[in-house]
Amino acid sequence: MTIQQLKKLKVDEALNANVWDVDEEPHIKVDFSKCVECDTKPCVRLCPAGCFTLLDKEVLFSYEGCVECGTCRIVCPKDAVDWNYPLSGRGVQYRFG
Ligand code: SF4
Ligand code: SF4
């Protein structure tokens, strides 16, 4: 794939091209008791991989599709995200940089 073709990829297309070697142990843990007190829930809007979702005002989290950007840790106003990289060799493997 050329640079020009790569630049035309949409975010979803680029994400779908990645592969994951998912660890059994989550590399991100969320203290959901703090989420109850969180009014704005920025993680739901800003996680590029859609790992945070809302169901009846309850925050759900799945780490399997995480692209390890660190956004959730930075934007969380309640310090509810315990963030680590996956174990060596696990997690996302980027196909397009
Ligand atoms: S931003 Fe933090 S506290 Fe708020 S819903 Fe997300 S993980 Fe929970
Ligand atoms: S590190 Fe990035 S991709 Fe992974 S859960 Fe947090 S915001 Fe989503």
Share in helix: 25-40%
Main sheet: strand order = 1-6
Question: In percent terms, what proportion of residues is strand?
Answer: 15-25%
Number of helices: 5
Bound molecules: iron/sulfur cluster
What about the largest sheet? 2 strands, antiparallel
The CATH architecture would be: 2-Layer Sandwich
Distance between the termini: 12 Å
Number of strands: 6
Helix-strand blueprint:
Blueprint: H1 3-7, H2 11-16, E1 19-21, E2 28-30, H3 32-35, H4 42-46, E3 52-55, E4 58-61, H5 71-75, E5 81-83, E6 91-93
Antiparallel strand pairs: 1-6, 2-5, 3-4
Question: Any overview of this molecule?
Answer:
- With 97 residues, the protein is an alpha+beta fold.
- It has a single domain (25-93), classed as Alpha-Beta Plaits.
- It is built from 5 helices and 6 strands, in the order ααββααββαββ.
- It is globular.
- Residues 28, 47-49, 51, 66-72 line the site of one iron/sulfur cluster.
Key structural traits:
97 residues, alpha+beta, Alpha-Beta Plaits, two-stranded antiparallel sheet, binds iron/sulfur cluster
Gist of the model:
The protein is of the alpha+beta class.
